Amino acid sequence: MSKSTSYSDATQVVHAGSVVDEKTAALSPVIVTSTTFEQTSPGVHKGYEYSRAATPTRDQLETALARLENTQYALSFASGLAAEQAILQLCDQGDHILSCDDVYGGTRRLGEKVWARYGLTFNYMDTCHLDKVETYLKQHTTKMLWIETPTNPTLRIMDLQSLGALAKKYGCLFVVDNTFASPIFQKPIDFGADIIVHSTTKYISGHCDVLGGAVMTSQTPIYEKLQFLQMATGAVPSPFDCYLLLRSLPTLALRMHKHAENALKLATFLSNHNKITKVIYPGLPSHPNHELAKQQMSGCSGMVSFYYDTDLEGIARFSQSCKLFYLAESLGGVKSMINHPAAMTHVSVDKTVRESLGITDQLLRLSVGIEDPEDLIADLKQALK
Ligand SMILES: *Cc1c(COP(=O)(O)O)cnc(C)c1O
């Protein structure tokens, strides 16, 4: 496809990164498994030498991912956390990172249980409070401002424009984890993000069958450092994994619009149910950041959280009674899933911290799939009985 980025996302996902194989004229991505490539004379090769450094299938994926985020560059990794690991390796000993208090649990664990041992310090705060963030950045030399929006599982929306401006003003790198919105609904590069990170395991894969991560940037010096780290530390995806992601991309826009359409219907249904005390979905006018979500997102994605007024037994009974919603970790797949954060994804978070973030025993999180919304509503209705 031509270098033009003027196509809409629905077209980009189908064509971006697509190359017709020179030898066979195959239209679909070719999986090149070779780890090594013949050189024409010592040190002279056709762009590939050893597959940790680069492979044709991975290149194709990275080109497509960069196109989707409107960035100059993308690099792919073996998991979302491997991608995050590479970003943190941009830091030097003693560097300081400020993050949101409900950042993805694995990100927090990576910071506190791994990187803290190597002299990086992390601080967490409610990054919805811009004044607090500014006061903090004024007083502390900060290497990175690392945020996520919408957050997990309470789906709070961070003001990308303002946080991007603060990061710039105080000279720190603005890192945005765009996993929950996907590049279809939110382009952090438009709001000053220096680095964008994804767990491609989630919406980008969309089928819960491949683990992956990606980092996007438009800044050449950052890209060159990250590319070096990708090669030097080796947490790269296999050609098969790259192929699976390439296989998923053409339906990304279709899937995201269906996820969001279904999520709004389910959120509306739950809001009107007498056993549900509160529903959190950025697409509902009742969401405290609904207006901000409309400004910076072109759709509100497929995650819905809600408080079910019952005890732990009631929660267990409800989640077991759902027939179409699988009780499972992870998100972003075509199949609907239900998660009880306090006992599942967030069980490692200290109970008092958890509750201060609104992750009580009554909170449930749905990853709404692409099934018929009426069937999903009927399923929730019977399970709530
Ligand atoms: C899942 C997830 C990650 C980690 O990605 P893995 O692919 O599981 O390593 C990071 N950030 C967010 C927001 C996630 O949901």
Query: Helix coverage percent of residues?
Result: 25-40%
Ligand catalogue? pyridoxal-5'-phosphate
Radius of gyration: 21 Å
Largest sheet: 7 strands, mixed
Strand arrangement across the biggest beta sheet: 1-7-6-5-4-2-3
Distance between the termini: 52 Å
Oligomer: single chain
Judged by helices, strands and strand pairing, the structural class is: alpha/beta
* Total E-strand runs: 12
Q: What best-fitting shape do the alpha-carbon axes yield?
A: globular
**Percent of residues in β-strands:** 5-15%
Task: Record keyword descriptors for this entry.
385 residues; alpha/beta; 15% strand; binds pyridoxal-5'-phosphate
Question: Could you explain the architecture of this structure?
Answer:
By secondary structure, the protein is α/β, with parallel strands linked by helices. It is built from 14 helices and 12 strands. It has helices spanning 9-15, 56-68, 80-88, 105-114, 130-139, 160-169, 182-185, 220-233, 239-248, 252-271, 290-296, 312-321, 351-356, 373-384, and strands at 73-77, 96-100, 121-125, 144-148, 173-177, 195-199, 213-217, 276-280, 303-308, 326-327, 337-339, 363-367. A 7-stranded mixed beta sheet has the order 1-7-6-5-4-2-3, sandwiched between helices. A 5-stranded mixed beta sheet has the order 8-9-12-11-10, with helices on one face. Helix 7 (182-185) links the parallel strand 5 (173-177) and strand 6 (195-199). The N and C termini lie far apart (52 Å). It binds pyridoxal-5'-phosphate (PLP). Pyridoxal-5'-phosphate (PLP) is lined by residues 79-81, 104, 106-107, 148, 152, 177, 179-180, 199, 201-202, 211, 213.
